Amino acid sequence: MKPYQRTSSLKKVYRRLPSSRTGVLLRKKRPSVAKCAICKKPLRGSVGSKQRMYGGFVCHKCLQSLIKLSMRGIS
């Protein structure tokens, strides 16, 4: 492999070439599903980031508990 091909950010896909050999194609990895930073469940809703605090980072249930704890003065 060439030096620029030695990276973990590209996915190796093995394909048969016209010369009947098997070659390696490098493709970009598909992004994984966004997960909540606290409970690790997949985030629901649209793909775009939410315009509320911790939007796209914490799910709505964990955010609700965080807000309750902060308003009660418990850190």
Description:
- It contains 1 helix and 2 strands.
- It has one domain.
- The chain is rod-shaped, with a radius of gyration of 21 Å.
- With about 80 residues, it is α+β, with helices and mostly antiparallel strands.
- The model has no long low-confidence stretch (mean pLDDT about 90).
- The termini are far apart.
- It has one helix spanning about 60-70, and strands at about 10-15, 20-30.
Nutshell version of this structure?
With 75 residues, this protein is an alpha+beta fold. It contains 1 helix and 2 strands. The chain has one helix at residues 60-72, and strands at residues 10-16, 22-28.
What characteristics describe this protein?
rod-shaped, two-stranded antiparallel sheet, alpha+beta, 1 helix, single chain, 2 strands, 75 residues
**Strand order, largest beta sheet:** 1-2
Major sheet details = 2 strands, antiparallel
- The span between the termini is 51 Å
Count of distinct structural domains: 1
Helix content: 10-25%
Write the layout of secondary structure elements.
Blueprint: E1 10-16, E2 22-28, H1 60-72
Antiparallel strand pairs: 1-2
